[in-house]
Amino acid sequence: MELTAHWLTSYFRETLRTTPGEHEMREDTEARLAWQEQVLPGSGGYDFGPYDIHCADELLHDMELPSRRAGNLLAEYLLPGGVAHRYAGLNGSSRPK
Predict the structure, then answer these.
(1) What pLDDT does residue 97 have?
(2) Per the count of CB atoms within 10 A, which of 17, 44, 62, 69 is most buried?
(3) How far apart are CA 96 and CA 64, in angstroms?
């Protein structure tokens, strides 16, 4: 949720890499829900497990923040991804210079 809040703040400040319009956001949402129904039939749009990492990576990319947050390649792919400490420092101190 915090990552989404950062993305929304960036959206309203118009500091995203690209700022999608309403039509584009609706299309992206529909495409995501269709994909999710295909992968997780009957999920009703609920995102969990390894699937939420993909969404987090997209939000980080939009904000021009690194999606690799674990410190080493093994940890990046083998440790749980949806844990808060992996996204610490999004207040601007982790932005690329």
Answers:
(1) 42
(2) 69
(3) 8
Residue 42: enclosing H or E segment and its boundaries? none
Q: How far apart are CA 65 and CA 47, in angstroms?
A: 22
pTM: predicted TM-score of the whole model, two decimal places: 0.65
Task: Report the distance separating Cα 35 and Cα 56, nearest Å.
Answer: 16
Residues 6+ apart with CB under 8 A from 81: 50, 52, 53, 56
- Match 């990319």 to its residue by tokens: 61
CA 89, distance to chain mean position in Å, is 15
Rounded Cα gap, residues 53 and 92, in angstroms: 21
Q: Is the dihedral of CA 71, 76, 81, 87 positive or negative?
A: positive
Nearest alpha carbon to residue 7 among 65, 49, 52:
65
